[in-house]
Design goal:
Number of strands: 13
Bound molecules: 2-keto-D-gluconic acid
Order of helices and strands: EHEHEHEHEHHEHEHEHEHEHEHEHE
Largest sheet: 7 strands, parallel
Strand order of the largest sheet: 8-7-6-9-10-11-12
Radius of gyration: 22 Å
Shape: globular
Length: 339
């Protein structure tokens, strides 16, 4: 998808645009060349007032990681489009946007492989105890050949259960089945016609009922969007269904997991380990037991956090906004705003 092609020529009217999370300079310049741009990140000290002031006249917004609900939209009467620098849209009040006819764009596709890499890193790190053993060396405790107390568990050949089988879930399945000889079970709202849509995974990835997937997988990876249906999906019943000694990975959204149930499963033996890139509260509070749990590999929501991918996300999001404000169909629309 050539996201900078057919970006509209300079429009007559310069519109008011609010950037609520920093953009790379080259993408900010693309916006400033066409529109009147205010940069105000409400999560940064001293910028909240400027953010609210700019909202009152903003016709377009671009950013991420900030909850945009009805109360905020009520103070943005001119708003036509929000361009999110994310694939996930759980920060946006979709019914409120639709009610106000506000379009929502996002950045699917450009982060798929990077996020799949992050999820597979968590699978490797939690199975082979990489953080723990790296600290063992760093803290000078490697004084003799390691013994069984520091052994990890194989990844290759293990059964991987993937919750959610969209672009990122499929990319994780490719890594597992083709790179690590892992049988893949997946659960999603609709089975994918693997033979036709993903021939490289034919016979290697099987749509499986939810509970059965939890019972059969050695490693379960959550890669699905946060929604009313998936909020709190993984609780004590679900962790209780998992194989003793299984490993749980969350590369999706923290609120999909009931974190107390996860802690209980880690402390009382169901789970061998957990690899987490996302949490119910981000950044993870200092007093979170997940932050220091010996069986947890915790990352600071780095799913798409590479130079290449974050720049590609910014390019797509900027193009989406420029196209929408020029009255053209953006490359990646999540919700048109017209009900
Ligand atoms: C974003 C993500 O960087 O795209 C998503 O949905 O979770 C990440 O790629 C994050 O949302 C930005 O806060």
């Amino acid at each position: 998808m050539n996201v900078t092609a057919n970006v509209p020529a300079l429009p007559a009217v310069r519109k008011k645009v609010l950037v609520f999370r920093e953009l790379p300079p080259d993408q900010l310049a693309r916006l400033q060349a066409v529109h009147e741009v205010t940069v105000a990140n409400p999560r940064l000290p001293g910028q909240l007032a400027a953010f609210h002031a700019a909202l009152t006249s903003a016709e377009g917004m671009i950013g991420s990681s900030y909850a945009i609900h009805e109360s905020l939209l009520a103070s943005a009467p001119q708003l036509k489009v929000i361009s999110s620098v994310s694939v996930g849209v759980d920060n946006y009040d979709l019914p409120a946007l639709a009610a106000r006819g506000i379009m929502l764009c996002h950045t699917p596709g450009v982060l798929t492989e990077t996020t799949a890499d992050t999820i597979f890193s968590l699978i490797m790190a939690s199975s082979r105890r990489l953080m723990e053993l790296a600290s063992h060396v760093r803290e000078g405790r490697w004084t003799r050949n390691i013994g069984e107390d520091l052994f990890g568990w194989d990844v290759h050949g293990k059964t991987l259960g993937i919750l959610g089988f969209g672009r990122i879930g499929q990319a994780v399945a490719r890594r597992a089945a083709l790179g690590f000889n892992m049988p893949v079970l997946y659960h999603s709202r609709r089975p994918v016609d693997v033979a036709h849509e993903l021939p490289e995974l034919a016979g290697k990835a099987t749509h499986t009922p939810f509970d059965e997937l939890l019972q059969r997988a050695d490693i379960v990876a959550a890669v699905l969007p946060l929604s009313k249906e998936t909020r709190g999906l993984m609780g004590s019943r679900e962790f209780g269904l998992m194989k003793p000694g299984a490993i749980f990975i969350n590369g999706a959204r923290g609120a999909i997991v009931q974190e107390d149930a996860l802690l209980h499963a880690l402390d009382h033996g169901t789970l061998r380990a957990a690899g987490l890139d996302v949490f119910a509260t981000e950044p993870l509070p200092m007093d979170s037991l997940l932050r220091t749990h010996p069986k947890v590999t915790a990352l600071p929501h780095i799913g798409s956090a590479t130079f290449e991918t974050r720049h590609a996300m910014a390019v797509l999001a900027t193009s989406n906004l420029l196209q929408a404000l020029a009255g053209e169909r953006p490359a990646a629309v999540f919700a048109t705003g017209s009900s």
